[in-house]
Specification:
By secondary structure, this protein is mainly α. It has two domains: 66 residues, Arc Repressor Mutant, subunit A (Orthogonal Bundle), CATH 1.10.10.10; 143 residues, GntR ligand-binding domain-like (Four Helix Bundle (Hemerythrin (Met), subunit A)). It is 62% helix and 3% strand. The protein contains ten helices and three strands, in the order αβααββααααααα. The chain has a three-stranded antiparallel sheet with strand order 1-3-2. Strand 2 and strand 3 form a beta hairpin. The longest helix has 25 residues. It is globular.
């Protein structure tokens, strides 16, 4: 029996995937310039490979090509962008819940409910930390994505969820009142899923994302910034060789 052929990921795709992980985890700040030379050194690849990877990142919606000045920067979102992304995300999340609830077995519905309820385990809603809320929300979302039965919906949701960026998620749950409201909406969601009520599950899912959006917009209006988005101290950069040549006095 012939051995299965190994599947190799193209180098540019591997670099783009690692950059995507860094951006969505908040390790690359919104608006941060992505320098080809630095990335080539970091990943041990050529600048041509980095250029291909950055083009993939732009296609994914996580970076933008800067007009005229050149270069690529991590995407920045205006308040209007964030509202639009969360509205789209809410519609897709509701649809995903409706499909899952209508197609899942009773055992799968109970598994989802147990996953969602694992955050509290009898404790008051306010006792959960923002990080715990993010963790359980992400785990239950991944559970749904794997079982909703629609590859197109999976792809669409993953794209818009990437654009929302995980670094904003802790701001959903920064206040105890917000965690309590999220708990109340989660109780409604779990009840709908347990009963197999797809319409109620869709409404509850939309309400959860709408509540997250309201809390995020209020936090941003108060001037709160995700810790990962705080600016780093300025770096001393080595000038590009061409820049050095231009700055050298004429002999």
């Amino acid at each position: 029996m012939a051995a299965e052929a190994e599947v190799f990921e193209p180098l540019a795709q591997a670099v783009a995937r690692r950059l995507s992980d860094q951006v969505t985890a908040g390790h690359r700040r919104p608006g941060e310039r992505l320098w080809e030379e630095d990335l080539a050194a970091e990943f041990g690849v050529s600048r041509g490979t980095v250029r291909e990877a950055l083009a993939l990142l732009v296609q994914e919606g996580l970076a933008v090509q800067v007009p005229r000045r050149g270069g690529v920067r991590v995407v920045e979102f205006s308040p209007a962008d964030i509202e639009e992304i969360y509205d789209i995300r809410g519609a897709l999340y509701g649809l995903m819940l409706a499909l899952f609830t209508s197609r899942a077995t009773p055992a799968e519905r109970l598994e989802f409910a147990a996953l969602r309820e694992s955050l509290w385990c009898g404790l008051p809603p306010e006792a959960a930390s923002a990080e715990d809320c993010v963790r359980v929300g992400s785990a239950s979302k991944d559970f749904l994505l794997e079982r909703c039965g629609s590859p197109r919906l999976q792809q669409s949701y993953r794209r818009v969820a990437l654009q929302a960026l995980r670094l904003y998620a802790p701001l959903h749950y920064g206040r105890a009142e917000a965690r309590r409201a999220w708990y109340d909406r989660s109780v409604m969601l779990v009840a709908a899923v347990r009963l197999g009520d797809a319409e109620a599950a869709e409404r509850a899912g939309r309400a959860i994302i709408a509540g997250n959006k309201r809390e995020l917009m209020a936090a941003l209006a108060r001037g709160e910034v995700p810790a990962a988005a705080m600016p780093d101290p300025p770096r001393t950069r080595r000038a590009h060789p061409r820049a050095e040549e231009k700055s050298r006095p004429a002999q």
